[in-house]
Amino acid sequence: MPVSADTLPRLSWYTQDRPEQVRVSAGWPAAPVEDWAASGATGAGVRVCVVDSGVEDGHELVGQLAGAYSVEPGPEGSPRVVPDNRGDSSGHGTACASVIRRFAPGCELVSVRVLGGFFGSSENLITALRWVIDNGFDVVNLSLSTSKRTFGTALRELTDDAYFNRTLIVASAHNMKVESFPWRFSSVVSVGSHAEADPWLYYYNPAPPVEFYAGGVNVPVAWKGGARTLCSGNSFATPRIAGICALILSKYPELTPFQVKTALYLSAANVREQP
Amino acid sequence: MSIDGVPPVLDKGHQRLLQSIVEVARAIFSAGASSIFIFDSSAGELVFEAVSGAGEATLLGQRFPMDEGIAGWVLQSGEPLIVDNVTSNPLHARQFAESTGYTPASVMAAPLMDAGTSIGVLEVLDRRPDPARALGDLEMLGLFANQATVALQVVHQSQEAMARVIHDDTLAGVAVALSGLTGSRREAGRQLLTSIKDVLATEA
Protein backbone atom coordinates (compact mmCIF):
# COMPACT_ATOMS: atom_id res chain seq x y z
CA MET A 1 0.00 0.00 0.00
CA PRO A 2 1.10 3.60 -0.49
CA VAL A 3 3.43 5.22 1.97
CA SER A 4 2.49 8.64 3.28
CA ALA A 5 4.84 11.40 2.16
CA ASP A 6 5.04 12.52 5.81
CA THR A 7 6.80 9.30 6.80
CA LEU A 8 9.50 9.67 4.16
CA PRO A 9 12.87 11.28 4.90
CA ARG A 10 13.10 14.88 3.77
CA LEU A 11 15.07 14.71 0.57
CA SER A 12 16.75 17.86 -0.62
CA TRP A 13 19.38 18.70 -3.25
CA TYR A 14 21.31 15.53 -2.38
CA THR A 15 20.82 12.38 -0.32
CA GLN A 16 23.03 9.94 1.55
CA ASP A 17 20.15 7.52 1.99
CA ARG A 18 20.15 4.17 0.27
CA PRO A 19 17.20 3.34 -2.03
CA GLU A 20 15.60 1.00 0.53
CA GLN A 21 15.50 3.87 3.03
CA VAL A 22 13.41 6.02 0.73
CA ARG A 23 11.25 3.34 -0.80
CA VAL A 24 8.05 4.66 -2.37
CA SER A 25 5.27 2.16 -2.79
CA ALA A 26 2.46 3.74 -4.73
CA GLY A 27 0.76 0.45 -5.52
CA TRP A 28 1.38 0.76 -9.24
CA PRO A 29 -0.05 -1.98 -11.41
CA ALA A 30 2.41 -4.19 -13.24
CA ALA A 31 0.80 -3.19 -16.51
CA PRO A 32 -1.45 -0.38 -17.71
CA VAL A 33 -4.98 -0.84 -16.35
CA GLU A 34 -7.89 1.34 -17.40
CA ASP A 35 -9.93 1.49 -14.22
CA TRP A 36 -7.24 1.14 -11.56
CA ALA A 37 -6.52 4.79 -10.99
CA ALA A 38 -9.92 6.27 -10.19
CA SER A 39 -12.52 3.52 -9.82
CA GLY A 40 -14.45 3.55 -6.57
CA ALA A 41 -13.33 7.06 -5.63
CA THR A 42 -15.58 10.09 -5.11
CA GLY A 43 -13.06 12.91 -4.82
CA ALA A 44 -13.69 13.14 -1.05
CA GLY A 45 -10.93 14.97 0.79
CA VAL A 46 -9.60 16.64 -2.35
CA ARG A 47 -9.67 20.45 -2.71
CA VAL A 48 -10.27 21.63 -6.26
CA CYS A 49 -10.08 25.26 -7.38
CA VAL A 50 -11.74 26.57 -10.56
CA VAL A 51 -9.87 29.63 -11.82
CA ASP A 52 -12.23 31.22 -14.36
CA SER A 53 -15.13 33.68 -14.63
CA GLY A 54 -16.56 32.77 -11.20
CA VAL A 55 -18.95 29.91 -10.31
CA GLU A 56 -22.66 30.08 -9.50
CA ASP A 57 -22.87 28.76 -5.95
CA GLY A 58 -25.73 26.30 -5.37
CA HIS A 59 -26.43 25.53 -9.02
CA GLU A 60 -27.99 22.06 -8.98
CA LEU A 61 -25.16 20.66 -11.11
CA VAL A 62 -22.48 22.33 -8.99
CA GLY A 63 -23.73 22.14 -5.39
CA GLN A 64 -22.36 24.25 -2.59
CA LEU A 65 -18.99 25.91 -3.02
CA ALA A 66 -16.50 25.77 -0.16
CA GLY A 67 -15.47 29.32 -1.06
CA ALA A 68 -15.66 31.98 -3.77
CA TYR A 69 -13.01 34.64 -4.39
CA SER A 70 -12.00 37.16 -7.01
CA VAL A 71 -8.89 39.12 -7.91
CA GLU A 72 -9.41 42.79 -7.05
CA PRO A 73 -7.20 45.85 -6.54
CA GLY A 74 -5.73 46.07 -3.04
CA PRO A 75 -5.03 49.20 -0.96
CA GLU A 76 -1.72 49.74 -2.78
CA GLY A 77 -3.37 49.22 -6.15
CA SER A 78 -1.77 45.83 -6.75
CA PRO A 79 -4.05 42.83 -7.33
CA ARG A 80 -5.05 40.56 -4.45
CA VAL A 81 -7.53 37.73 -3.87
CA VAL A 82 -10.59 38.62 -1.79
CA PRO A 83 -13.92 36.90 -0.96
CA ASP A 84 -16.51 37.42 -3.69
CA ASN A 85 -20.27 36.87 -3.86
CA ARG A 86 -21.02 38.00 -7.41
CA GLY A 87 -21.25 34.50 -8.88
CA ASP A 88 -20.27 33.99 -12.48
CA SER A 89 -19.82 36.84 -14.99
CA SER A 90 -20.35 34.67 -18.07
CA GLY A 91 -21.34 31.08 -17.20
CA HIS A 92 -18.07 29.48 -18.33
CA GLY A 93 -16.69 28.91 -14.81
CA THR A 94 -19.99 27.38 -13.71
CA ALA A 95 -19.83 25.04 -16.71
CA CYS A 96 -16.33 23.85 -15.76
CA ALA A 97 -17.30 23.40 -12.10
CA SER A 98 -20.32 21.28 -13.06
CA VAL A 99 -18.15 18.90 -15.09
CA ILE A 100 -15.74 18.45 -12.16
CA ARG A 101 -18.67 17.85 -9.80
CA ARG A 102 -20.10 15.16 -12.08
CA PHE A 103 -16.80 13.28 -12.05
CA ALA A 104 -15.84 13.89 -8.42
CA PRO A 105 -19.08 14.47 -6.48
CA GLY A 106 -17.30 14.34 -3.11
CA CYS A 107 -14.60 16.92 -3.79
CA GLU A 108 -14.43 20.38 -2.25
CA LEU A 109 -14.93 23.09 -4.89
CA VAL A 110 -13.64 26.67 -4.62
CA SER A 111 -13.88 29.42 -7.25
CA VAL A 112 -11.43 32.20 -8.01
CA ARG A 113 -12.69 34.71 -10.56
CA VAL A 114 -10.00 36.15 -12.82
CA LEU A 115 -12.17 37.44 -15.68
CA GLY A 116 -14.43 40.47 -15.67
CA GLY A 117 -12.29 42.23 -13.11
CA PHE A 118 -10.25 45.38 -12.78
CA PHE A 119 -6.91 44.13 -14.08
CA GLY A 120 -5.98 42.46 -17.32
CA SER A 121 -6.71 38.76 -17.24
CA SER A 122 -3.01 37.81 -17.33
CA GLU A 123 -2.17 39.77 -14.16
CA ASN A 124 -5.25 38.28 -12.52
CA LEU A 125 -4.22 34.79 -13.56
CA ILE A 126 -0.77 35.15 -11.98
CA THR A 127 -2.24 36.54 -8.75
CA ALA A 128 -4.80 33.73 -8.59
CA LEU A 129 -2.25 30.97 -9.22
CA ARG A 130 0.04 32.35 -6.50
CA TRP A 131 -2.94 32.28 -4.14
CA VAL A 132 -4.02 28.71 -4.94
CA ILE A 133 -0.45 27.45 -4.43
CA ASP A 134 -0.11 29.34 -1.13
CA ASN A 135 -3.44 27.87 -0.02
CA GLY A 136 -2.41 24.31 -0.82
CA PHE A 137 -5.13 23.27 -3.28
CA ASP A 138 -4.76 19.75 -4.62
CA VAL A 139 -6.11 20.36 -8.13
CA VAL A 140 -6.60 23.55 -10.15
CA ASN A 141 -8.82 23.64 -13.24
CA LEU A 142 -7.55 26.22 -15.69
CA SER A 143 -9.66 26.34 -18.84
CA LEU A 144 -7.83 29.53 -19.76
CA SER A 145 -4.46 30.65 -21.04
CA THR A 146 -2.64 33.83 -21.96
CA SER A 147 -0.81 34.43 -25.22
CA LYS A 148 1.12 37.39 -23.82
CA ARG A 149 4.77 36.31 -23.86
CA THR A 150 5.71 38.86 -21.22
CA PHE A 151 3.88 36.73 -18.65
CA GLY A 152 5.48 33.47 -19.78
CA THR A 153 8.42 33.47 -17.36
CA ALA A 154 6.31 34.35 -14.32
CA LEU A 155 3.79 31.66 -15.24
CA ARG A 156 6.51 29.07 -15.74
CA GLU A 157 7.93 29.79 -12.28
CA LEU A 158 4.47 29.60 -10.75
CA THR A 159 3.56 26.31 -12.39
CA ASP A 160 6.90 24.85 -11.26
CA ASP A 161 6.12 26.02 -7.71
CA ALA A 162 2.73 24.34 -7.97
CA TYR A 163 4.29 21.13 -9.26
CA PHE A 164 6.82 20.98 -6.39
CA ASN A 165 4.17 21.87 -3.78
CA ARG A 166 1.68 19.16 -4.80
CA THR A 167 -0.78 21.49 -6.46
CA LEU A 168 -1.71 19.87 -9.75
CA ILE A 169 -2.66 22.38 -12.45
CA VAL A 170 -4.84 20.92 -15.20
CA ALA A 171 -4.75 23.39 -18.10
CA SER A 172 -6.57 23.69 -21.43
CA ALA A 173 -4.63 23.75 -24.64
CA HIS A 174 -5.65 26.73 -26.76
CA ASN A 175 -8.37 25.90 -29.30
CA MET A 176 -6.69 27.95 -32.02
CA LYS A 177 -3.17 27.71 -33.44
CA VAL A 178 -1.96 30.22 -30.90
CA GLU A 179 1.09 29.89 -28.66
CA SER A 180 -0.25 30.45 -25.18
CA PHE A 181 0.58 29.59 -21.57
CA PRO A 182 0.63 27.82 -19.15
CA TRP A 183 -0.70 24.69 -20.86
CA ARG A 184 2.56 24.30 -22.82
CA PHE A 185 4.60 23.90 -19.65
CA SER A 186 5.54 20.35 -18.66
CA SER A 187 4.75 21.07 -14.98
CA VAL A 188 1.01 21.10 -15.75
CA VAL A 189 -1.34 18.45 -17.13
CA SER A 190 -2.33 19.81 -20.55
CA VAL A 191 -5.63 18.80 -22.11
CA GLY A 192 -7.07 18.88 -25.63
CA SER A 193 -10.31 17.45 -27.03
CA HIS A 194 -11.38 14.30 -28.79
CA ALA A 195 -14.83 13.94 -30.36
CA GLU A 196 -15.86 10.57 -28.83
CA ALA A 197 -19.07 10.49 -26.79
CA ASP A 198 -17.81 8.50 -23.76
CA PRO A 199 -17.24 11.07 -20.98
CA TRP A 200 -14.72 8.80 -19.21
CA LEU A 201 -12.60 8.13 -22.29
CA TYR A 202 -9.21 9.81 -22.33
CA TYR A 203 -6.09 9.23 -24.39
CA TYR A 204 -2.45 9.88 -23.73
CA ASN A 205 -0.87 11.88 -26.57
CA PRO A 206 2.55 10.49 -27.48
CA ALA A 207 3.30 13.72 -29.40
CA PRO A 208 3.13 16.55 -26.85
CA PRO A 209 2.88 19.42 -25.90
CA VAL A 210 -0.78 18.41 -25.37
CA GLU A 211 -0.49 15.43 -23.03
CA PHE A 212 -4.05 14.11 -22.75
CA TYR A 213 -7.25 14.25 -24.79
CA ALA A 214 -10.71 14.04 -23.21
CA GLY A 215 -14.18 14.46 -24.69
CA GLY A 216 -14.69 18.08 -25.67
CA VAL A 217 -17.75 17.96 -27.96
CA ASN A 218 -21.32 18.56 -26.80
CA VAL A 219 -20.38 18.32 -23.14
CA PRO A 220 -23.49 18.72 -20.92
CA VAL A 221 -22.76 21.57 -18.52
CA ALA A 222 -24.35 24.00 -16.09
CA TRP A 223 -24.56 27.67 -17.05
CA LYS A 224 -25.32 30.79 -15.04
CA GLY A 225 -28.90 31.52 -14.07
CA GLY A 226 -29.56 27.91 -13.05
CA ALA A 227 -29.41 26.87 -16.69
CA ARG A 228 -27.94 23.87 -18.51
CA THR A 229 -26.46 23.71 -21.98
CA LEU A 230 -24.12 21.77 -24.27
CA CYS A 231 -20.66 23.19 -24.90
CA SER A 232 -17.71 22.25 -27.11
CA GLY A 233 -14.03 23.11 -26.82
CA ASN A 234 -10.96 22.23 -24.80
CA SER A 235 -12.41 24.25 -21.92
CA PHE A 236 -14.84 21.42 -21.23
CA ALA A 237 -12.47 18.51 -21.83
CA THR A 238 -10.13 19.95 -19.20
CA PRO A 239 -12.47 19.67 -16.18
CA ARG A 240 -13.08 16.03 -17.11
CA ILE A 241 -9.37 15.35 -16.58
CA ALA A 242 -9.35 17.62 -13.50
CA GLY A 243 -12.23 15.57 -12.07
CA ILE A 244 -10.40 12.30 -12.77
CA CYS A 245 -7.28 13.73 -11.09
CA ALA A 246 -9.43 14.55 -8.04
CA LEU A 247 -10.63 10.92 -8.00
CA ILE A 248 -7.07 9.61 -8.22
CA LEU A 249 -5.93 11.89 -5.38
CA SER A 250 -8.86 10.93 -3.20
CA LYS A 251 -7.86 7.30 -3.65
CA TYR A 252 -4.09 7.86 -3.41
CA PRO A 253 -3.65 11.16 -1.53
CA GLU A 254 0.12 10.84 -1.23
CA LEU A 255 0.74 11.07 -4.97
CA THR A 256 2.80 13.92 -6.35
CA PRO A 257 1.81 15.70 -9.60
CA PHE A 258 4.40 13.57 -11.42
CA GLN A 259 2.79 10.41 -10.06
CA VAL A 260 -0.75 11.56 -10.90
CA LYS A 261 0.38 12.15 -14.47
CA THR A 262 1.86 8.68 -14.48
CA ALA A 263 -1.41 7.25 -13.13
CA LEU A 264 -3.31 9.06 -15.91
CA TYR A 265 -0.88 7.64 -18.44
CA LEU A 266 -1.22 4.07 -17.12
CA SER A 267 -5.01 4.31 -17.15
CA ALA A 268 -5.40 6.05 -20.54
CA ALA A 269 -7.53 4.14 -23.04
CA ASN A 270 -4.78 3.95 -25.66
CA VAL A 271 -1.96 2.78 -23.34
CA ARG A 272 -1.87 -0.99 -23.39
CA GLU A 273 0.60 -3.84 -23.01
CA GLN A 274 2.11 -5.21 -26.20
CA PRO A 275 0.04 -8.27 -27.20
CA MET B 1 -11.10 51.51 -35.66
CA SER B 2 -11.72 54.79 -37.44
CA ILE B 3 -9.52 57.85 -37.37
CA ASP B 4 -10.65 61.48 -37.50
CA GLY B 5 -10.17 63.04 -40.89
CA VAL B 6 -9.86 59.80 -42.84
CA PRO B 7 -11.92 60.01 -46.04
CA PRO B 8 -15.18 58.04 -45.89
CA VAL B 9 -14.01 55.89 -48.78
CA LEU B 10 -11.46 54.20 -46.48
CA ASP B 11 -14.03 53.58 -43.80
CA LYS B 12 -16.21 52.07 -46.51
CA GLY B 13 -13.31 49.81 -47.54
CA HIS B 14 -12.89 48.72 -43.95
CA GLN B 15 -16.61 48.00 -43.72
CA ARG B 16 -16.62 46.03 -46.98
CA LEU B 17 -13.72 43.86 -45.81
CA LEU B 18 -15.38 42.97 -42.53
CA GLN B 19 -18.73 42.50 -44.22
CA SER B 20 -17.21 40.06 -46.72
CA ILE B 21 -15.69 38.04 -43.89
CA VAL B 22 -18.99 37.62 -42.03
CA GLU B 23 -20.77 36.80 -45.29
CA VAL B 24 -18.25 34.10 -46.19
CA ALA B 25 -18.29 32.72 -42.64
CA ARG B 26 -22.07 32.55 -42.75
CA ALA B 27 -22.02 30.78 -46.12
CA ILE B 28 -19.31 28.26 -45.15
CA PHE B 29 -21.14 27.25 -41.98
CA SER B 30 -24.62 27.47 -43.60
CA ALA B 31 -25.42 29.70 -40.66
CA GLY B 32 -28.36 31.94 -39.80
CA ALA B 33 -26.15 34.92 -39.02
CA SER B 34 -22.57 36.01 -38.47
CA SER B 35 -21.22 39.13 -36.75
CA ILE B 36 -17.96 40.85 -35.92
CA PHE B 37 -17.74 42.82 -32.69
CA ILE B 38 -14.93 45.29 -32.06
CA PHE B 39 -13.82 45.98 -28.50
CA ASP B 40 -14.06 49.64 -27.52
CA SER B 41 -11.63 49.63 -24.59
CA SER B 42 -12.40 53.20 -23.52
CA ALA B 43 -16.08 52.35 -22.99
CA GLY B 44 -15.56 48.72 -21.94
CA GLU B 45 -18.05 47.67 -24.61
CA LEU B 46 -18.35 45.42 -27.65
CA VAL B 47 -19.68 47.11 -30.78
CA PHE B 48 -21.39 45.39 -33.74
CA GLU B 49 -19.03 46.26 -36.61
CA ALA B 50 -20.34 43.90 -39.32
CA VAL B 51 -23.45 41.70 -39.53
CA SER B 52 -24.65 39.19 -42.10
CA GLY B 53 -28.08 37.55 -41.87
CA ALA B 54 -30.48 38.05 -38.99
CA GLY B 55 -30.17 41.56 -37.55
CA GLU B 56 -28.19 42.86 -40.54
CA ALA B 57 -30.40 45.93 -40.92
CA THR B 58 -30.52 46.99 -37.30
CA LEU B 59 -27.49 45.87 -35.31
CA LEU B 60 -24.57 47.83 -36.77
CA GLY B 61 -23.18 50.17 -34.15
CA GLN B 62 -25.13 48.64 -31.25
CA ARG B 63 -23.14 48.12 -28.06
CA PHE B 64 -23.18 45.87 -25.00
CA PRO B 65 -20.91 45.43 -21.94
CA MET B 66 -17.65 43.52 -22.56
CA ASP B 67 -18.14 41.14 -19.62
CA GLU B 68 -21.56 39.85 -20.66
CA GLY B 69 -22.38 36.47 -22.08
CA ILE B 70 -20.58 34.26 -24.52
CA ALA B 71 -18.94 37.00 -26.62
CA GLY B 72 -17.71 38.68 -23.43
CA TRP B 73 -16.06 35.49 -22.18
CA VAL B 74 -14.46 34.86 -25.57
CA LEU B 75 -13.10 38.42 -25.65
CA GLN B 76 -11.64 38.22 -22.17
CA SER B 77 -10.27 34.70 -22.33
CA GLY B 78 -8.98 34.85 -25.90
CA GLU B 79 -10.44 31.36 -26.47
CA PRO B 80 -13.07 30.21 -28.99
CA LEU B 81 -16.20 28.44 -27.76
CA ILE B 82 -19.28 26.59 -29.03
CA VAL B 83 -22.54 26.64 -27.06
CA ASP B 84 -25.44 24.59 -28.41
CA ASN B 85 -29.12 24.37 -27.43
CA VAL B 86 -29.07 28.02 -26.44
CA THR B 87 -32.86 28.22 -26.55
CA SER B 88 -33.06 25.84 -23.59
CA ASN B 89 -31.17 28.42 -21.55
CA PRO B 90 -33.49 31.28 -20.52
CA LEU B 91 -30.62 33.61 -19.67
CA HIS B 92 -28.96 33.15 -23.05
CA ALA B 93 -32.29 33.55 -24.76
CA ARG B 94 -33.02 36.80 -22.95
CA GLN B 95 -29.53 38.22 -23.51
CA PHE B 96 -29.73 37.50 -27.23
CA ALA B 97 -33.28 38.76 -27.51
CA GLU B 98 -32.29 42.01 -25.80
CA SER B 99 -29.16 42.60 -27.84
CA THR B 100 -30.20 41.25 -31.22
CA GLY B 101 -33.96 40.73 -31.27
CA TYR B 102 -33.22 37.14 -32.28
CA THR B 103 -32.59 34.00 -30.23
CA PRO B 104 -30.31 31.47 -31.92
CA ALA B 105 -30.21 27.75 -31.15
CA SER B 106 -26.42 27.63 -31.28
CA VAL B 107 -23.56 30.09 -30.90
CA MET B 108 -19.97 29.74 -32.03
CA ALA B 109 -17.52 32.54 -31.21
CA ALA B 110 -13.77 33.14 -31.63
CA PRO B 111 -11.56 36.02 -30.53
CA LEU B 112 -9.80 38.40 -32.90
CA MET B 113 -6.27 38.25 -31.46
CA ASP B 114 -3.71 40.95 -32.24
CA ALA B 115 -0.28 40.36 -30.64
CA GLY B 116 -1.76 38.46 -27.71
CA THR B 117 -4.59 40.93 -27.11
CA SER B 118 -8.25 40.40 -27.99
CA ILE B 119 -9.49 43.26 -30.15
CA GLY B 120 -12.89 41.78 -30.97
CA VAL B 121 -14.99 38.68 -31.51
CA LEU B 122 -16.26 36.81 -34.58
CA GLU B 123 -19.57 35.07 -33.88
CA VAL B 124 -21.56 32.58 -35.99
CA LEU B 125 -25.16 31.83 -35.02
CA ASP B 126 -27.15 28.73 -35.95
CA ARG B 127 -24.58 26.91 -38.05
CA ARG B 128 -25.91 23.78 -39.76
CA PRO B 129 -25.83 21.21 -36.94
CA ASP B 130 -23.28 18.44 -37.26
CA PRO B 131 -22.04 17.38 -33.82
CA ALA B 132 -19.31 15.18 -35.30
CA ARG B 133 -17.80 18.27 -36.93
CA ALA B 134 -17.72 20.51 -33.86
CA LEU B 135 -13.95 20.47 -33.34
CA GLY B 136 -13.34 21.13 -37.04
CA ASP B 137 -15.82 24.00 -36.89
CA LEU B 138 -13.93 25.54 -34.01
CA GLU B 139 -10.67 25.36 -35.93
CA MET B 140 -12.22 26.82 -39.09
CA LEU B 141 -13.82 29.63 -37.14
CA GLY B 142 -10.40 30.39 -35.68
CA LEU B 143 -9.00 30.69 -39.21
CA PHE B 144 -11.74 33.15 -40.16
CA ALA B 145 -11.07 35.11 -36.99
CA ASN B 146 -7.38 35.33 -37.90
CA GLN B 147 -8.34 36.59 -41.36
CA ALA B 148 -10.59 39.23 -39.84
CA THR B 149 -7.76 40.32 -37.53
CA VAL B 150 -5.34 40.69 -40.45
CA ALA B 151 -7.95 42.69 -42.36
CA LEU B 152 -8.42 44.99 -39.39
CA GLN B 153 -4.66 45.42 -38.99
CA VAL B 154 -4.20 46.32 -42.68
CA VAL B 155 -7.10 48.74 -42.63
CA HIS B 156 -5.88 50.33 -39.43
CA GLN B 157 -2.37 50.81 -40.86
CA SER B 158 -3.84 52.39 -43.99
CA GLN B 159 -5.99 54.68 -41.89
CA GLU B 160 -3.01 55.76 -39.79
CA ALA B 161 -0.91 56.43 -42.90
CA MET B 162 -3.73 58.43 -44.45
CA ALA B 163 -4.29 60.32 -41.22
CA ARG B 164 -0.61 61.32 -41.15
CA VAL B 165 -0.96 62.73 -44.67
CA ILE B 166 -4.20 64.53 -43.83
CA HIS B 167 -2.81 66.07 -40.68
CA ASP B 168 0.24 67.47 -42.55
CA ASP B 169 -1.00 70.66 -44.31
CA THR B 170 1.66 70.58 -47.05
CA LEU B 171 1.12 66.94 -47.96
CA ALA B 172 -2.65 67.37 -47.75
CA GLY B 173 -2.44 70.37 -50.12
CA VAL B 174 -0.34 68.37 -52.61
CA ALA B 175 -2.79 65.44 -52.44
CA VAL B 176 -5.76 67.74 -53.03
CA ALA B 177 -4.00 69.53 -55.92
CA LEU B 178 -3.04 66.23 -57.56
CA SER B 179 -6.51 64.78 -57.20
CA GLY B 180 -7.87 67.90 -58.99
CA LEU B 181 -5.76 67.27 -62.11
CA THR B 182 -6.72 65.14 -65.10
CA GLY B 183 -5.07 63.50 -68.10
CA SER B 184 -1.48 64.41 -68.99
CA ARG B 185 -1.23 67.08 -66.26
CA ARG B 186 -2.10 64.49 -63.63
CA GLU B 187 0.50 62.07 -65.03
CA ALA B 188 3.12 64.87 -65.08
CA GLY B 189 2.26 65.75 -61.47
CA ARG B 190 2.55 62.13 -60.42
CA GLN B 191 6.00 61.83 -62.10
CA LEU B 192 7.14 65.01 -60.39
CA LEU B 193 6.11 63.69 -56.98
CA THR B 194 7.82 60.36 -57.71
CA SER B 195 11.04 62.25 -58.49
CA ILE B 196 10.76 64.26 -55.26
CA LYS B 197 10.20 61.04 -53.31
CA ASP B 198 13.33 59.46 -54.93
CA VAL B 199 15.44 62.52 -54.09
CA LEU B 200 14.22 62.59 -50.48
CA ALA B 201 14.83 58.86 -50.11
CA THR B 202 18.41 59.30 -51.42
CA GLU B 203 19.07 62.23 -49.05
CA ALA B 204 17.79 60.16 -46.14
From TrEMBL, chain A:
<dbReference type="GO" id="GO:0005615">
    <property type="term" value="C:extracellular space"/>
</dbReference>
<dbReference type="InterPro" id="IPR000209">
    <property type="entry name" value="Peptidase_S8/S53_dom"/>
</dbReference>
<feature type="active site" description="Charge relay system">
    <location>
        <position position="92"/>
    </location>
</feature>
<dbReference type="GO" id="GO:0004252">
    <property type="term" value="F:serine-type endopeptidase activity"/>
</dbReference>
<feature type="active site" description="Charge relay system">
    <location>
        <position position="235"/>
    </location>
</feature>
<dbReference type="GO" id="GO:0006508">
    <property type="term" value="P:proteolysis"/>
</dbReference>
<keyword id="KW-0720">Serine protease</keyword>
<protein>
    <submittedName>
        <fullName>Serine protease</fullName>
    </submittedName>
</protein>
<dbReference type="Pfam" id="PF00082">
    <property type="entry name" value="Peptidase_S8"/>
</dbReference>
<dbReference type="InterPro" id="IPR015500">
    <property type="entry name" value="Peptidase_S8_subtilisin-rel"/>
</dbReference>
<dbReference type="InterPro" id="IPR050131">
    <property type="entry name" value="Peptidase_S8_subtilisin-like"/>
</dbReference>
<dbReference type="InterPro" id="IPR036852">
    <property type="entry name" value="Peptidase_S8/S53_dom_sf"/>
</dbReference>
<comment type="similarity">
    <text>Belongs to the peptidase S8 family.</text>
</comment>
<keyword id="KW-0645">Protease</keyword>
<feature type="domain" description="Peptidase S8/S53">
    <location>
        <begin position="43"/>
        <end position="270"/>
    </location>
</feature>
<keyword id="KW-0378">Hydrolase</keyword>
<feature type="active site" description="Charge relay system">
    <location>
        <position position="52"/>
    </location>
</feature>
<dbReference type="InterPro" id="IPR023827">
    <property type="entry name" value="Peptidase_S8_Asp-AS"/>
</dbReference>
TrEMBL record, chain B:
<feature type="domain" description="GAF">
    <location>
        <begin position="13"/>
        <end position="162"/>
    </location>
</feature>
<dbReference type="InterPro" id="IPR029016">
    <property type="entry name" value="GAF-like_dom_sf"/>
</dbReference>
<dbReference type="Pfam" id="PF01590">
    <property type="entry name" value="GAF"/>
</dbReference>
<dbReference type="InterPro" id="IPR003018">
    <property type="entry name" value="GAF"/>
</dbReference>
<protein>
    <submittedName>
        <fullName>GAF domain-containing protein</fullName>
    </submittedName>
</protein>
